[in-house]
Design a protein that fits this description.
The strands form 4 sheets. The protein has a 4-stranded mixed β-sheet with strand order 1-4-5-13, sandwiched between helices. 54% of the residues are buried. The protein has 438 residues and is α/β, with parallel strands linked by helices. It is globular and about 65 Å long. It binds uracil. Uracil binds next to helix 10.
């Protein structure tokens, strides 16, 4: 086969065969093909699109470009979740121990943040000593021993995706549904889960700005998973405003702990209960956990009786983290400056733009511009109001947590842009827009 012929076929809008796709992905992963041919291929896919069959083949080719974990011998049925990336999205930190506390094993690999979007692995590193770099053997051992493990992605997991993603970033081919879907699903399939809940975000702080575009992406991913023999559920959730209150690594860990102890912001708690419920539904395989009200009651109980929190504590301890920080979150990294951002007028909150809030936290050092940049784990913002809330002029809307006072003006400028007021009542935003099944 010749790469140039495959590129030409896609350029001309023809469907690629399974063999062509597997050959191209394999040759590029092994550095046999140069970046310029892979870039041309990506642009041809971007412009011409891919059929369901081609997208499934691209996903499987990327999933099989490295190790494919098989946890079924140890765990029976494993469930996983994936978020398409949000602001204040610390859901994994709550959902994993909550589901594991119900006796369903969870073994997850998560990513780091890039740009304004945060990553679970960075958040976990707020806990001193927490080891995110586990060998395959350690990962499997902890999964079996505790029914819960949460690490960074091993280099051997879908290496083709790492190479393609870096190239997409610099060739303007990131926002392309078949490429996004195959990128996400290749990693999920390689990580060995049988059932996968996808949390596809939509809105101002999300990849997919409209509900329609999020639904389209979710549908492709659900279909890929189903064709690959996975049980799938996707939810379309709101990301116009941040989820919960905290945006910033250690602040988000503290909020997750508060939620695991039965408290936490109402929207974040409700979001976690819904995602956990879908994970249990998959794990029950139609035999158990089929009644949503019963599932909800079970999850509420696990939060109230300390079981979910206990599972988080066990996770942290098993991966070398300092459990004193979990027991007493004031021991997590703390910023030296806490400043209030107050309402400039009275009215109803009409907008709390998630992207602008994330950029405000980014200005303080909470995020990284490029891979490998250091981040400040302590800084970020806390949002005290939601869209629809009525506020008085001067009321504290947000708290800024900073370590460097020179960064405050840029942070405040983003917060000014984040907020819009209305003189008339504004409807609260929904948490979810849709649910898709395989
Ligand atoms: N997340 C991924 O892992 N890949 C994409 O292409 C987009 C978001």
């Amino acid at each position: 086969m010749r790469a140039v012929d495959i590129i030409a076929r896609k350029r001309d809008g023809l469907a690629l065969t399974k063999d062509e796709i597997f050959w191209f992905v394999d040759a590029y992963t092994r550095d046999i093909l140069p970046d310029y041919q892979a870039a041309a291929f990506l642009m041809a896919v971007f412009i011409r699109g891919m059929s369901r069959e081609e997208t499934v083949n691209l996903t499987l080719a990327m999933a099989h470009s490295g190790d494919v974990l098989d946890l079924s011998d140890m765990l029976g049925y494993a469930v996983d979740k994936h978020s398409s990336g949000g602001v204040g999205d610390k859901t994994t930190l709550v959902v994993l121990p909550l589901v594991a506390s119900c006796g369903v094993p969870v073994a997850k690999m998560s990513g780091r943040g890039l740009g304004f979007s945060g990553g679970t692995i960075d958040k976990l590193e707020s806990i001193a000593g927490y080891n995110v770099n586990l060998s395959d053997e350690e990962f499997r051992k902890l999964a079996k021993q505790n029914g819960i493990v949460l690490s960074g992605q091993s280099k051997e997991l879908a290496p083709a995706d790492g190479k393609f993603y870096a190239l997409r970033d610099v060739t303007a081919t990131v926002p392309c549904p078949p490429l996004i879907a195959s990128s996400i699903m290749s990693k999920k399939i390689a990580a060995g889960a049988n059932g996968i809940v996808l949390d596809v975000k939509t809105g101002r702080g999300a990849f997919m700005p409209t509900v329609e575009s999020a639904r389209e992406l979710a549908r492709i991913m659900v279909d890929i998973g189903a064709d690959a023999g996975r049980d799938m559920i996707a939810v379309i959730s709101d990301m116009n405003q941040p989820l919960g209150q905290a945006v910033g690594n250690a602040l988000e860990v503290a909020e997750a702990i508060e939620t695991l102890r039965g408290g936490g912001p109402a929207d974040f708690r409700a979001h976690c209960l819904a995602v956990s419920g879908y994970m249990l539904r998959l794990a029950g395989q139609g035999k158990k956990w089929t009644d949503p009200a019963e599932v909800r009651a079970l999850l509420e109980t696990q939060l109230a009786n300390g079981q979910a929190f206990g599972k988080f504590r066990q996770l942290v301890e098993a991966q070398g983290g300092d459990v004193r920080m979990v027991d007493d979150p004031v021991k997590l990294p703390q910023a030296s400056i806490a400043e209030s951002f107050n309402a400039s007028r009275s009215g109803y909150i009409a907008q709390m733009d998630a992207q602008e809030v994330a950029l405000a936290a980014f200005e303080l050092g909470a995020g990284r511009e490029k891979k490998g940049d250091p981040i400040d784990l302590a800084v970020g913002v806390k949002v005290h109001v939601k869209v629809g809330d009525q506020v008085q002029a001067g009321a504290p809307l947000l708290t800024i947590y900073a370590n460097d006072p020179t960064k405050l003006p840029a942070c405040r400028a983003h917060l000014e842009r984040a907020i819009a007021y209305s003189d008339t009542p504004v409807d609260p935003l929904p948490l979810f827009y849709d649910t898709l099944y395989d």
